[in-house]
What we know:
This protein is an alpha/beta fold. The protein is built from 15 helices and 13 strands. The chain has helices spanning 2-19, 53-59, 84-91, 110-116, 127-137, 154-167, 170-191, 223-227, 247-253, 265-274, 276-279, 283-286, 303-317, 327-339, 344-349, and strands at 26-30, 36-40, 46-50, 69-70, 96-98, 120-124, 141-143, 201-205, 217-219, 231-232, 242-244, 257-260, 290-292. β6, α5 (127-137) and β7 (141-143) form a beta-alpha-beta unit. The chain starts with a helix and ends in a 13-residue tail after the last helix.
Amino acid sequence: MKKWGLLLSAVLLVCFMAGAGFCEETKTVVDVFGRSVEIPAQVKSIVCLGSGAPRMAAYLDVVDLLVGVEDHDKSGVNFLRDYSFPYVDQLKDLPAVGTGGGSGSNNGYPEQIIGVMPDVILAGFSAEAADELSAQTGIPVVSVRYLSRNFVDASFYQAMRVFAETVNAQQRCDQVLAYIDACKEDLDARTRDIPDSEKSRVYAGAVTFSGRHGFCGTYAHFGPLMGVNALNVADEAADMNYYETDLEKIAMWDPDLIFLDPGNMDLVRSEYETNTAFFRTLRAVEDGQLFTMPSFNNCGTNVAYALMDSYYAGIVLYPAQFADLDMKTKGGEILTALLGMDFYDEMEQAGLYFGTITLEEP
Length: 362
């Protein structure tokens, strides 16, 4: 009888431990830096921190798993982050667990994270920052950091697949990446056979990188222009990505057409007021060939906006090849495919619009 009592006690202890999670099944995920991270086989709660991580939760439709958010997602809608508007009501009332930002450093709040006890932390952090936060919290940290370079490059695909494996969202991941691939192939197919001799020479200015920039802020290998095989004059700096050029160089390039970030037009217009004579020497200014190119970078690449920018560049640069498209319809399709909602009108009303632009105050 005593023997049976001991056996029953052991069974009850095992059941208790299993119920408490001590015997929970686990799996190992290899993150973007090659770190092997042991996590629960069925992840039921997450925290997303740093560059790109909250955005990927939105693309993968797993925002409902979040138990905490960064400070900058608690202050209402910020259209500079494409996931903000569709998910603002779900995010704003969650506890704050980090500052937010795209530096790759550890910007989490360890005590607050421990307080909400997620199964896993998904972070756009460096490997060192991920190790540091894991040591501070005792919670596994999977890095999903990706680069904001070129046109939705391989690092984004890798990060999405790591995120999807972590939260068991592989099917949705495949759908999203297949849609992005289809857009990229469509853009390329429409433009790849156009000879350079028939293309306009283009400059993208007032771009946003590590903050706002005026007219001389530009990109070599600018993703939306790469997507439509455009002739970007800034590609002359082959070893650069984003950089500050100078007015003399822009005058030498004298592009046929200029795209500017509408969110930085206050900076450009201030420059125009103090140096009007220079701007009027540019043929694109004199010919009225100035167009908007809303920023697609904010704590990582807003892939929805990058795709929309590339389609708009195609519509402007190659009207015959894109005659079947309009931005409102295509933009709404992209937003719905990646974020489950068409908020094109709200985006435009917030200042992220596609159209012509002037240097004089409207």
